[in-house]
Amino acid sequence: MKLKTIILTSVLTVFFVACVSKKKYTAQQTRINRLKDSVDMVIFKLDQCMADKQKQVSRITELEAEVVHLKATGNALLNQLSDLSVLSKAQAESIKQSLSNLSSKDAYIKDLQVAMARKDSINIALVMNLKGALKDVNDEDVNIKIEGSAVFISVSDKMLFNSGSYEVSKKAMGVLGKVAEVLKAQPEIKFMVEGHTDNKPMSTNTIKDNWDLSVLRATSVVRVLQNFYNIDPARMIAAGRGEFLPLAPNNSDENRSLNRRTRIMIIPELDQFFKLLEPKSNQ
Question: How far apart are CA 218 and CA 266, in angstroms?
């Protein structure tokens, strides 16, 4: 890595120069400043990495290795430079503080790993509970899976609604009731209900287009969960995606049937997770 090469060059230079001219003294100070800048850059890179959840898992191992390497190299450099009186007291303290910050970031990474593992465990347990509750429902009508950091419950259009309608069918009421029981057991979890349609244009006296239909279907499901199964409305979001997020090309009746669906997306506890990303006074 470029960063490691810079630090190694600085250390070797200090080891082999016992007495330095003013010009070399200035050059060494420049290298020291570069070392500090490099350390600070690693800290900045860590902060950027924390802000992008999708990259965290793949970067954590690499960053931990950089932290260990920089701490060891930086401490060795301080010991050698103290003999040459190249560093001022303020400069030495500045680098020590940067190394201390790296130790804080190391602990910070471990906190994130614990939080991510906990969230994954909750999602897996939730999927198992949902599948247990819906074990007698045809898999073609209800599909449950984890995508990324969220749990998705996808219910087919033919299960929930009649063609062109947004009134929940009697058959679907029982399925939504089983889902509601699982969700009520986890009161801290929030979720979004998404309506999806195929691309066949439609318009009635009460429905303007597919956008409208998808939203109306989502709000119908939300109202059932609230009014019949006492789910707190503050936990729910109703959204319509229209025809614009298909599972398959709308080129056959079978594919269009797949695309007409309603998804319940169980949202991770992002508020708790991102509290770990907030700056702390000792970092």
Answer: 14
Q: What is the pLDDT of residues 67-85, one digit of tens each?
A: 777 777 666 666 655 554 4
Using alpha carbons only, give the angle 269, 271, 274 rounded to the nearest 5 degrees: 105
**Bridge partners for 153 per DSSP:** 144, 264
CA dist 223 and 73 (Å) reads 61
Residues linked to residue 155 through DSSP beta bridges, in sequence order:
142, 262
Please state the separation of Cα 197 from the chain's center in Å.
28
Confidence of residue 171 (pLDDT cuts 50, 70, 90): confident
- For residues 158 and 254, what is the distance between their CA atoms, to the nearest angstrom? 12
Rounded Cα–Cα distance for residues 83 and 18 (Å): 9
Instruction: Clarify whether residues 83 and 164 are in a common domain.
Output: no
Bridge pairing between strands 150-156 and 142-147: antiparallel
* Whole-number average pLDDT of the chain: 77
* 54-66 mean pLDDT: 67
Residue 115 has pLDDT above 90, yes or no: no
Q: Three-class SS of residue 251?
A: coil
Give me the residue label for tokens 């991770």.
Answer: 268
Would 143 be classed as within a structural domain? Answer: no
Indicate if 97 and 197 belong to the same structural domain: no
What is the residue type of 240? G
For residue 92, tell me if it sits in a domain. yes
Q: 214 and 172, same structural domain? A: yes
Domain interval for residue 87: 2-121
pTM, rounded to two decimals = 0.58
- Tell how far CA 51 is from the center of its chain: 9
The answer on pLDDT for 283 being more than 50 is no
The tally of domains found in the chain comes to: 2
The pair phi, psi for residue 134, each rounded to 5°, is -110, 25
